[in-house]
Specification:
2 domains, about 40% strand, globular, single chain, 2,3-Dihydroxybiphenyl 1,2-Dioxygenase, domain 1, 3-stranded antiparallel beta sheet, 4-stranded mixed beta sheet, alpha+beta, 7 strands
Length: about 110
């Protein structure tokens, strides 16, 4: 399990919030992973009670790959919209975010040895 508070330029890009800080908790088990992100700064605002469940958060799917650079280049050739280029300075993994044709975020990761 990874439990880390992160403030970095890539967090601003991913959240769309300047000077953002997130708490990331990542659980890994048998090749599966679950990532939970909490916006620490700025503090989250309470949601109005009439917002539908489907609109109460930002969700994304994540795929683990063996060669993140090759995947990025292939998707770039296909014209995929990227949220950010590969971020290589993380202690546990390399990653990038992109969007599918419906605007849904997709995270691609390569675990470091």
């Amino acid at each position: 399990m990874l439990d880390e508070t992160i403030t970095a330029p890539f967090v601003d890009i991913l959240t769309g919030v300047p000077n953002a800080t997130v708490r990331a908790v990542i659980l890994l088990k048998d090749g599966q992973g679950w990532e939970f992100l909490q916006l620490v700064n700025p503090p989250a605002q309470p949601l109005p009670s009439d917002i539908p469940y489907a609109q109460t958060g930002r969700a994304h799917i994540c795929f683990e790959v063996d060669d993140i650079d090759a995947v990025y280049k292939r998707l770039e050739k296909e014209g995929v919209t990227f949220i950010c280029p590969p971020i290589l300075d993380q202690p546990v993994l390399k990653m990038f975010y992109c969007e599918d044709s419906g605007g849904n975020r997709i995270e691609i990761i390569e675990m470091k040895e």
